[in-house]
Amino acid sequence: MMTSRAADPAFYAETAESLVERVFGAVGRLREEVLDRRLTDLTPHGPLQARHLADLRPALIELLRAHRDIVVGMGMIVAPGLLRGERHRMEWWQLPPGRDQPAALRVDLNPESLGFYDCDSAEWFDVPRRTGRRHIVGPYVDALGTDRYLLTFTAPVVADGTFLGVVGADVPVAQFERHLLRAWGDRALVAGQVAGGAGRDVRQGRDARQGRDVRAGEGRAGGVEPEVLIINSQGRVVVSNCARALSGDLLAGEPAGTGTVRLDLLDVPWQLLLTERLVPRRPLVRNQP
Amino acid sequence: MPTTIGTGRQAVFAPLDDGAGRSEAVVRRLGSAIALGLIADGEQLPAESELATSLGVATVTLREALSDLRRRGLVQTRRGRGGGSFVRVSEPALTALTKRRVRELGSTDLRELGEFHAAVAGTAARLAAERATSAEIDRLNAAVGRYAEASTNAARRRTEGRYYIEMAAAAQSVRLTRQEIELQSELAELQLFPPDTTGWARETLGRHRAVVAAVKDRDGARARRLTEETIGLRTLAMIEVHLSLGAKSGYTLDSEAEASWSTPEGEVDDDQPGC
Fold first, then answer.
1. By CA distance, what is A286's nearest residue in B?
2. Helices (H) and strands (E) in chain A, counts
3. Closest by CA position to B65, among listed B79, B53, B56, B75
């Protein structure tokens, strides 16, 4: 009946996959822009220069504007040693919500500084360089860089076997959550209405009649919407629709519940955990009351 | 071109908000930025008018501050083409600045600062114990390792600051991280590192290691308690220095050497009472 329709794990997985692919689509476009500008040709014949990177700017900013509903920053970080004048290795632009003009991000590249931003050992640079594959970092606090809570999507730029650097996009965790919750919520609502004409209002009304405290994460305990968590390879919650395990939390163990489904996302190093809300809840993360 | 700078450096050139002694405030801001390496040795400062605008002070105030920094040997001015003001790192000069600041602040100012830092760093440690991934715990270990290798006061200050910032980031809190970065800039102008006769450096290192071990054990309560204790002890030491410096009413260059944490030889301590 209605529960099985709304609780279809594939639906939740596909929504997340398509959002991820949309961001990587933008990153891929940026990589093409880099390769189209034949920056690669410059490296065997002469050093890559800051102005070559600057040529990328209009296309980069156009991409940033086109995806600003989800992406807050985009750019390229050049491989060490390739660029004359190491201080210009980063061409990274930001367009935070509420701002009209993009701004370049400049980080402190002095290793002897408290504010040193270590690009080379950063996971978003190091992993694509080592593996030659695209990568997602986070959720993480981008300390001393953008100071945001982010998911960073990066991909290597390789031409004729030479690693030129990485291109990438920053997605605020809150933005990623907003997109997914909206998509998931729409579906659950539709499923509920189709199944019995019983939308959220009816359930909330029932909760109120029983004098129950309708708290976040429990208000939908009628069973229509399942509990959905997406976790990364380190067991950290990327996004969830339940208050007891939010983005950034580490999962302490298997969620307690019947009908828990664990599903690998396609081409994304994340897993989806879906639990139908049928049992008394137990804490999911450490030290929760 | 509009830019946003990495948060560490951003704070250096942000407008000053403390009203009292504007030129002194500029000296302190630039002094702690130099101490933390946020402005590098040999780096050229922005042009006077530009710097005055970004700090929100009058050009004449800025000039006063620069001349003070020049006198202290922290800034060198070259004339002519390619000239300007260049930063020079001088440990004795930075220590002298620190002493002045520790002396002029009240005991309760220092206590409050320590308590606030303990609140921020203690909470960060607790949350990190709950949330840090194994990769983040590795980073914390690496940060403590860099502190262990630090051989100069500047390096100790910087690496210890980074340890606290990494901890706040591992807590998955943007707010705690921002607060910790701000606190480190403020603490930079107050932290004196005495000669290691009592083995305090090894003890501090041991304490940071114990916190990371607690984080690894997922023991948030222990991580928090150890962090609070460490900062509490550091604060106490800072207040003791403050009291010992304040007690020297006839403060002179000579008596400076007798202060409980004496400065290295050859120090140019031009501090006069009330200057």
1. B130
2. 8, 10
3. B75
B258 part of a folded domain: no
**Which of these, B121, B167, B127, B124, lies nearest to B144 by C-alpha position?**
B167
Q: Are residues B105 and B183 in the same domain?
A: yes
**Domain end marker among B89, B110, B133:** B89
How many angstroms separate the CA of residue B253 from the nearest CA in chain A? 31
Say if residue B109 is in the same domain as residue B240.
yes
**Which helix H or strand E contains A81, and what residues bound it?**
none
Asked whether the beta carbons of residue A143 and residue B169 sit closer than 8 angstroms, the reply is yes
What are the residue boundaries of the structural domains of chain A, listed by start?
Answer: 2-15+175-216+225-275, 20-172
**Lowest-pLDDT choice from A94-108, A205-219, B114-128:** A205-219
**CATH number corresponding to A20-172:** 3.30.450.20
Residues B119 and B180 in one domain: yes
C-alpha distances in Å from residue B63, one per residue of A190, B81, B93, B94, B267: 68, 20, 19, 19, 24
What pTM, to 2 d.p., does this model score?
0.83
Of B3, B158, B165, the CB nearest to A103: B3
Would B257 be classed as within a structural domain?
A: no
Spell out which residues of chain B touch residue A140, defining contact as CB-CB under 8 Å.
Answer: 169, 172
Q: Name which of B9, B41, B141, B183 to mutate to probe chain A: the one with the most chain A Cβ atoms within 10 A of its Cβ.
A: B9
Identify whether B264 is part of a domain. Answer: no
Judging by DSSP bridges, how do beta strands A227-231 and A162-172 pair with one another?
unpaired
Residues B28 and B143 both lie in one domain: no
Structural domain for B19, as ranges: 7-89
Q: Which of A56-65, A271-280, B44-53, B60-69 has the lowest mean pLDDT?
A: A271-280
Judge whether B274 lies within some domain: no
Measured between CA atoms, how close is A288 to chain B, in angstroms? 10
Query: Which long-range contacts does A196-202 make (Cβ < 8 Å, 24+ apart)?
Result: A196/A2, A198/A2, A198/A224
Q: Give the nearest chain B residue to A118 (CA atoms).
A: B6
What is the signed CA dihedral for B252, B258, B260, B266, rounded to 10 degrees?
Answer: 80
Q: How many domains does chain B divide into? A: 2
- For B166-217, write each residue's pLDDT tens digit: 999 999 999 999 999 999 988 988 877 666 656 778 889 999 999 999 999 9
Judge: A145–B6 Cβ closer than 8 Å, yes or no.
yes
ipTM of the complex: 0.81
